[in-house]
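Quick one, probably user error.
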């Protein structure tokens, strides 16, 4: 028996929940068909998370590629089909791969499995990112170094916490839906152990009745709690640095792990700070959105707290 998972026409960190909802009740050994024939658009998060779906299953799944030629062309430019072919049995017309030289693709989908991969990613994107951030998004030149650090720390979380590889992608486009400005988007996704199990592996971890995926996200993102010992200088501070960077530049950070999703949101977004009781999916899926700068308006971000949770 094959279970068909329908991919929504527009795929981002919000609509991908439809994929997780369909996937959660399917036993691991059951055959899957990921049906993306009607997909028209995807964010970097959507493409990276689609690869994670295959990564999370023991049984190799089928994948029906989009039918829209423009969608096929863009997904090819991001390198999606190159990686998908290693994980899925692809069905439909798969275009010949094209180089991701267009300005909207800062970094095509890139696998991260070790620290050397992280250094390679940052080195490849640094100059192009500087041109985009300063020239198109009007951000201060000082942001370039911080952007490289943020990208590096995001990828390093895969190496240190996932237990297996993941993917990173960076893109810039006009964010018409909520903002009406250009943005740069970083997506970093894996289907590894997730934050809760990672923190549980720490010798200093103390179990409590309230311990769950939501609390693990709060500890990791808001309190900079790490599975590493306090003597391991610099460990566990990556997410805190990412949070500071996002807050300074009026950006948005979302992190999903297990059954919870935490969002640090600026004034231009109305996302819920903490969502619980989501369909379970392994690993961690992170997205960072940094918008074009307009004037010198003060920056204000809303952060999740233990009292600002909501269920689905």
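Nope, works fine. Designed sequence:
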């Amino acid at each position: 028996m094959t279970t068909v998972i329908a991919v929504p026409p527009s795929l981002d960190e919000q609509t991908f929940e439809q994929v997780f909802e369909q996937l959660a009740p399917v036993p691991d050994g059951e055959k899957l068909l990921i049906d993306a024939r009607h997909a028209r658009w995807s964010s970097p998060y959507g493409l990276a998370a689609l690869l994670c779906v295959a990564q999370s299953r023991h049984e190799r799944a089928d994948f029906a590629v989009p039918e829209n030629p423009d969608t096929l062309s863009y997904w090819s430019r991001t390198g999606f089909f190159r990686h998908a072919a290693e994980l899925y049995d692809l069905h439909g017309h798969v275009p010949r791969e094209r180089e991701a030289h267009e300005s909207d693709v800062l970094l095509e989908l890139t696998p991260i499995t070790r620290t050397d991969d992280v250094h390679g990613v940052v080195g490849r994107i640094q100059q192009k990112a500087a041109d985009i951030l300063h020239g198109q998004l009007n951000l201060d030149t000082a942001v370039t170094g911080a952007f490289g650090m943020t990208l590096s720390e995001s990828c390093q979380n895969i190496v240190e916490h996932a237990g297996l590889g993941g993917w990173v992608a960076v893109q810039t486009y006009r964010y018409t839906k909520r903002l009406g400005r250009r943005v740069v988007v970083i997506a970093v996704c894996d289907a590894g152990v997730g934050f809760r199990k990672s923190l549980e592996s720490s010798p200093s971890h103390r179990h409590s009745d309230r311990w769950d995926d939501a609390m693990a996200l709060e500890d990791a993102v808001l309190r900079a709690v790490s599975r590493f010992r306090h003597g391991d200088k610099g460990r566990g501070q990556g997410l805190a640095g990412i949070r500071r960077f996002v807050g300074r530049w009026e950006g948005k950070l979302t992190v999903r792990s297990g059954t919870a999703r935490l969002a640090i949101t600026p004034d231009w977004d109305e996302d819920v700070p903490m969502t619980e009781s989501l369909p379970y999916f392994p690993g961690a899926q992170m997205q960072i959105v940094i918008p074009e700068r307009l004037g010198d308006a003060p920056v204000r971000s809303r952060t999740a707290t233990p009292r600002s949770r909501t269920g689905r």
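DSSP finds nine helices and 15 strands in the chain.
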